[in-house]
Amino acid sequence: MTQVESATPKRPLTLGILAADIDTAFALRLVAGIIDRASALGARTVFLPGHPPSGASEFDRQFNLVFRLPDATAFDGLIVIGTTLQYHLPPKALEAFLSTLPQVPTLCVGFASKIVPSVVNDNYGGFREVVDHLIRQHGCQRIAMIAGPAGQGEADERLAGWRDACADAGLPPAPELVLQGSFSRASGHAAMLSLIERGIAIDAVVAANDEMALGAMACAVERGLHVPQEVRFGGFDDILAAGRLGVGLTTVNQSHYELGSVGVSHLLAAIAGEPAPGLTRVPTRLVRRQSCGCGGFYAQPGALAAKLPERMAGMLEELAVAPEREPHYREAIQLVEQGLSRALVEADFQPLLAAVHAVARDALAAEGHVFGVQALLVAAQRWLIEPRQLTPEAWAAAARWLQQAQIALAGLQDVALQERHRLHSEQAMAFRELLKTRIATFDLRKLLEHLSEALADLRLDTCCIALYSGEARIDSLDDFDLPTQARMLYAFIGGREQPDLHGERFRTHDVLPARAWELAAQSSALIVYPVFHGAEHFGFIVFSVDPVVGGPWETIRDEVSSALKASLLVSELAAARDALRSDLAQAREGQRELADIAHRDELTGLLNRRGFLAEARLRADRLHADGLAAAVIFADLDGLKQINDRHGHAAGDVAIRQAADVLRRGFRAADLIGRIGGDEFVIFTANADPDALAAMRDRIYRLFERASQDLPFTLAGSLGYVVAPPGDAISIEEMLARADTVLYEEKRRRKGAV
Question: Which of 52, 408, 441, 749 is the most buried (most CB within 10 A)?
Fold first, then answer.
């Protein structure tokens, strides 16, 4: 497709991207595909990440006001990422949501809509391929199916692929072979356990996603079944975990990057007036590993060696590498081939491991993950081993080393994800502390002075804050239309503050004033979050997007919203005192609201870091003076990232609120409870001895288990505590640091117990 020219030369085409989640591993690959393709074709993208449109909470509805930002004047087309929305909305509700959007060319990605053109992965064809493979290549006759949630589009298509593959092979799908799952690993484990306990005869199990397949395979191994000799397994998604176990999972790879890229191409063609196909299915790719009997020791060595360019061409075709990435993958294949050759000559795994480490480092820097390298190693088992003239011993060693390299690769990915999470946490904490320690008076001018310093530390290219003009802030969530006019409160573009844009007025639906768009030309991908506090919605904040590393966007939004609300409240109070000096009651009420905002966490209602530390210091001083013991308990959620990745950030917010409720029920009314950031909570209590605290910890764990019964995910937490004996003048900060250390020891203890 040639580069698309806008009909209006003053600005490039602008695409709005509506989504429910944007910073999971899968979502970031889709985002990268959208950004890269749009940029290559001369269009800019504006991401609008709301919450599930069905959300009834005030928090969800506030976030969903970004869905009202696009209009037919400022946006040339819209992409709706149905991949995650369909987990929260039934098909009719999602179609109803699509019908409310502006009358501009619109395309849905990941959900097969009946009212707008759609681009989806070939769920039916991909799943049918894995079932056909088990039947034709491995002679399987009794293939059990662990299906996804009934009525969910992707799950239904994969179930249909299983049914048709079995029927065409003359294998009537017996009812007892179909089990229901929820896309979770636990549901896959439970389904496999049911098959075993009922004595259902099977020779293979396929699951509608990898999480369920991995859970089922783990259950089979626990019950003493040999994989793949006694039962073979297949999944769908090709998640990283699918290749990290001792037995790699045969699965179907779907390219989220390609899904986003194709979606942009189709949308821009529709904007240009070309007829858009109603439904486009992006091909998937079968990835054969040991769980079905392929790969590694189960493949057969090939014939004489072929030339490397020919082998490389075959690998690139199998990997479906995008043209712009081919040079990188050619270099990667050469490095892996050289490492494998040296390993065979020296009879040592280390040369191959060094080559894989080098390739993985480049992939992490360029793409933020190693999924492509993992697929490359799988392909290498056929293309870099089979063409060689090897002894059976050498061939087996090469296959074993490639499997070991995949395990090492998974470890590198885990380390990279942990490092990214740590970096984001540290950046968010530094940002939070800078604003709160330097802007004690909540003066709006001081807030903006220090904001640039904090953003520069985060290496963020763009951050613009816009407020609705005049008295247009929304005080009721029943208001449907956004205010038509906004003004630029603060502009940070190109890595530095742009004070000449401060105060500039513009049309709300344009997202930024024209001069700001000109400065942000190098950052053609932006993301918009609402700025609100409680029921009051008074503007939005715009960031640049980096799909490789993601970003602590919501943390910045939360902190700016709270600080901005407090600053605006101060300004309002000052005006009220000037105009109504006699109305002292109103001023006191405003001051109480300001104090509460400054010390309370918006999501849970608990004390925030500042509020907790201030009150805890006062209590600690009193206990020390009275010669009484004090204790600090540090708690955090287990697996919050997995909840966010699997169920979305709305579910993560539910988990945090539920955890806060568990802690409220588990401690005394007189105890001090706070949320100091992310999934971290702290408690200050008096007159608690170690034995009582140990009993308390076990009680809290039981409360977490009970709370999980009504949730679609496992809610769990870990607690660490320290006691300051009577007369000990240890500071609250030091107690927190010690409790944090104890917490991680407790995490290791519990993990070891499991």
Answer: 52
